[in-house]
Design a protein that fits this description.
By secondary structure, the protein is of the alpha/beta class. It has a single domain, classed as Alpha-Beta Complex (Spore Coat Polysaccharide Biosynthesis Protein SpsA, Chain A), CATH 3.90.550. It contains eleven helices and nine strands. α1 links the parallel β1 and β2. It is globular, with a radius of gyration of 19 Å. The protein starts with 9 loop residues before the first strand and ends with a helix. The structure holds the ligand O=c1ccn([C@@H]2O[C@H](COP(=O)(O)OP(=O)(O)O[C@H]3OC[C@H](O)[C@H](O)[C@H]3O)[C@@H](O)[C@H]2O)c(=O)[nH]1 and manganese (II) ion. InterPro entries: RGP (IPR004901), RGP_fam (IPR037595). One of its GO terms (biological process) is cell wall organization. It catalyses: UDP-beta-L-arabinofuranose = UDP-beta-L-arabinopyranose. Belongs to the RGP family.
Length: 345
């Protein structure tokens, strides 16, 4: 990390349809940072933001004004709209959190500073090429275990840090319906690198990533109004991101920190959003598992555009949605480059 203070290197992106009173609980940890609030739904609605926070707020009207003919690629009436915040930020790191996530406590009863842990995760290397059975080898009080190749102990740069949730777990609708009262009470004191060539179900609730390393891959797809699926926004972004991280030799970590997820969304509404995705993902996953990208390409925007064309040819047979999604991926990159000209270079 450069000599620039952390608070000036990280933006917090919050998608919301609610007043942001939840920030009161986060004030000790979030107040020094700049917030990017993506107000979804009715742009004329006034949402309240507690005093003392430094923020910029974008409504659908703003997204359409800024992106013009590319605005359609940003979802409406779905938390996927958050990715617009990733695009407009000028900072190196993004932390994104849902507005029903609160400060969790560790087993000692201390409040968890999610930003402190995510940045620790981001600033220490990842180990995607060989699994360390004592988990994060760079953590105080642990190390690489016997038999771990010394040639791999430098690790690789970390592009993404995926945090978890106590209380309401991020279950899909079918699981939520059969286990409506299940709560996650298990605090696992661990951070792991997701091994190379292994996909994982990335949840956008408590997520940090390095915009410079992987930002253009974090498109949350076409969800919400007018789209046949929802609640696959973060999953899609996670699969695309992991394939590109594997291609570039970058790491994705999961585990600490935890947030307290307070609200279970309606499983019946969720099932309606998810059900096509539950079938389609049985083809999407093998597609991503077998996806290879041009070995000569290292630019994330270029890799993402190549991926878009492979989505069109490799998934278009499932449903016309995927052809539209491929177009959305392209429009996203054009929007990214419009707002981040340096990336074009
Ligand atoms: O139309 C909408 C609906 C919600 N939001 C904002 O998105 C955040 C998540 O909403 P919520 O907590 O109500 O839904 P969950 O089911 O818990 O969300 C999970 O599944 C969907 C996403 O993948 C999400 O990341 C997961 O956490 C919250 O901040 C709402 O205000 C919205 O912007 N537009
Ligand atoms: Mn929630």
């Amino acid at each position: 990390m450069s000599s620039v203070p952390l608070k000036d290197q990280l933006d917090i992106v919050i998608p919301t349809i609610r007043d942001l009173g939840f920030l009161e609980q986060w004030r000790p940890f979030f107040q020094p940072y700049h917030l990017i609030i993506i107000q979804d739904g009715d742009p004329t609605r006034k949402i309240s933001v507690p005093e003392g926070f430094d923020y910029e707020l974008y409504t659908r009207t703003d997204i359409e004004r800024i992106l013009g003919d590319k605005a359609w690629a940003i979802s409406f009436k779905d938390s996927a709209c958050r990715c617009f915040g990733f695009m407009v930020s000028k900072k190196r790191y993004i932390y994104t959190i849902d507005d029903d996530c609160f400060v969790a406590k560790n087993p000692s009863g201390d409040d968890i500073n999610v930003l402190e842990q995510h940045i620790k995760n981001m600033l220490s290397p990842s180990t995607p090429f060989f699994f360390n059975t004592l988990y994060d080898p760079y953590r105080e009080g642990t190390d690489f275990v016997r038999g771990y190749p010394f040639s791999l102990r430098d690790g690789v740069p970390t592009a993404l840090s995926h945090g978890l949730w106590l209380n309401i777990p991020d279950y899909d609708a079918p699981t939520q319906m059969v286990k409506p009262r299940e709560r996650n009470t298990r605090y696992v004191d661990c951070v792991m690198t997701v091994p190379k060539n292994t996909l994982f179900p990335m949840c956008g609730m408590n997520l940090c990533f390095d915009r410079d390393l992987i930002g253009p891959a974090l498109y949350f797809g076409l969800m919400g109004e007018g789209q046949p699926i929802g609640r696959y926004d973060d999953m899609w972004a996670g699969w695309c991101t992991k394939v590109i991280c594997d291609h570039l030799g970058l790491g994705c970590k999961t585990g600490l920190p935890y947030v307290w997820h307070s609200k279970a969304s309606n499983p019946f509404v969720n099932l309606r959003k998810e059900y096509k995705g539950i079938f389609w993902q049985e083809e999407m996953i093998p597609f991503f598992q077998n996806l290879t990208l041009n070995k000569e390409t290292t630019d994330v925007c270029e890799l993402y555009l190549e991926m878009a064309e492979k989505v069109r040819s490799g998934l278009g047979h499932i449903d016309p949605y995927f052809t539209k999604l491929a177009d959305g991926m392209i429009a996203w990159i054009h929007g990214w480059r419009q707002l981040n000209p340096a990336t074009k270079a």
